[in-house]
Amino acid sequence: MTTVSIAEAKNQLTRIVQEAETGESVHITRHGKPVAVLVSESEYERLRTTQSEPKSLWDTVLDWRNANNFDWLELTDEEIDCWRDKSLPREFAWDD
């Protein structure tokens, strides 16, 4: 990561563009505070496409399930049933 002031960026634009092309992000500051970042075209496209189309919760769950191998997870109904709470339910009354 390279950091340059706006004045340096103006004077050395060719050099910082070449840095960005090689995958190096260039942070540009004004009075020592960051104001912009110069990145390569490919990095910009990657960031733009991943943020412009947010995934639904279900798509995220499917991606997670596909990324993790759950082939070994074959539970029977009895195994799942034993996890359930068998205690008596709370008392409840509809108040009018």
Automatic annotation (TrEMBL):
Coiled coil regions, renumbered to chain: none
Entries under InterPro entries matching the protein: Antitoxin_Phd/YefM, phD/YefM_antitoxin, YefM-like_sf
Family annotation (Pfam families): PhdYeFM_antitox
Listed SUPFAM superfamilies: YefM-like
Assigned protein family: Belongs to the phD/YefM antitoxin family.
Chain's role: Antitoxin component of a type II toxin-antitoxin (TA) system.
NCBIfam families attached to this UniProt entry: phd_fam (TIGR01552)
Name by which UniProt lists this protein: Antitoxin
Organism expressing this protein natively: Candidatus Methylumidiphilus alinenensis
Lineage of producing organism: Bacteria, Pseudomonadati, Pseudomonadota, Gammaproteobacteria, Methylococcales
